[in-house]
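CO-FOLDING WORKSHEET

Operator: S.A.
Ligand of interest: zinc ion
Run index: 501
Mode: holo prediction, single chain
Checklist:
[x] sequence pasted
[x] SMILES validated
[ ] output reviewed
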Amino acid sequence: MQSREAYGKLLAWSRELAHLGTTMGLLHWDQRTHIPPKGHDNRAEQIATLARIHHQRETDPRAGEWLAAVEGTDLVTEPESAEAVNVREWRRSYDKAVKIPESLAVALAKAQAHGQSAWEKAKPQSDWAAFQPSLVELVGLRKEQAEVLGYEHEAYDALLDDYEPGAKAAEIEPVFRALRVATVKLLDRLRDLEQPKTVVVGKDYPLIDQERACMAVAARLGYDLEAGRLDTTMHPFSTCIGPGDARITTSYDPQDFTDALFSVVHEAGHAMYSQGQPKEHHGTPRGEYASLSVHESQSRMWENFVGRSPGFWAFFQPYFQMIFPALRDVSAHDAQRWVSRVQPGYIRVQADELTYNLHVMLRFDLELAVMRGKLGVADLPEAWDGKMQDYLGLKPPCHAKGVMQDVHWSGGLFGYFPTYTLGNIYAAQFFAAAQQELGDMGDMFARGEFAPLLGWLRREIHSRGKTLLARDLVQRVTGQEPDARYLVEHLTARCERAYYL
Ligand SMILES: [Zn+2]
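OUTPUT RECEIVED:
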């Protein structure tokens, strides 16, 4: 077969897979926002059916033949052409899909389902012993999977590749180490200082007004509401259904408006990335996000570098005061200090901007040690508590607030956690590069001008799709290797301002 013809077949194959995938995404979205309680059983079956069809199509042996007919031909000589990018990434995903024997795939799916239900049952009781066997099984199967998939340096990299294509644990370690040391040092400086006044929480924020304010903020930042929508859910998420349809969700705390505000800004950051991807390449890797960490760099940039900045509060606080009488006496300065506060706690998802990364790095250290065979699953609780003490100076009162708090490991998601902190590191590095070109953005934000930043992100990151892997993208956009220095500088400046250091 001619390479052109084979490439055409691959394009159609890829687009069909994307349609199946995003249709499942739409069903998931509905399941978490609008489905009636009695609809869940049927929904699980619908999703399972689509997943089965998706897997059959994904492993279609003809795709392997088409790939072989295209690879090494003139069509893919220019490495950053759409054709070369697509073929590179199709090869990556196709190999992954076909290398795993069905027996292993079935065992993994079962162990994941068991792991999650065991975790759900055991967590409320902090019953590690009841959960441990499921985790032992999952670790064993994921190690087996890594061996089947193959890797250059170590097994963990094979798992990491699912979320961060091409990333290596050994490259992440020194970047994280620098961030950890600096964060712990900064945290020490803040210990025993007086906390910013609680000026925002514990007041009355009618939900209808919260929703209106959140939509207004998201729209002002550049989220296109005609290509998206905001709905209510338990645990906020965003989902891209396709060009012209990138949705966000949030939950509301009637006594703390900033809860919904920051989750909306975060999810809108994800959705704006989706809205900025090249439509003409939809359904192919060239039109997709680069990696989970790059996705997270976008949400974190809007949430923390924009949403928690003095300029943002200078611009929006008069508007918030108009909507919420409870905020009439709260100055932009006090509100911004409050949202910058640092308070070490046990729970990752409730952590502030500074300590959040310590939670993530702790998990990365532990799962890496387990995958390297340096730590047994049975030793995780003790190792967890030890690291909590070292990094955050806290001892969890129970496993539910310690080693058992996250859902990730119960589903066998090893290699996922580092993407959160990589996202923060990349956000800082991208933001510094944007600022170098656009000038100080604090004044722009204070004038309500967010388009220059979004325009820069569109050009430098969104429009590139998956052309470059995350590390190469950072290098290309900022001229430097990934470096935690920019995040440390940002966090230091923020804390110094909030605590009058
Ligand atoms: Zn996110």
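REVIEW:
The radius of gyration is 23 Å.
The CA atoms of residues 361 and 418 lie 7 Å apart.
[x] output reviewed
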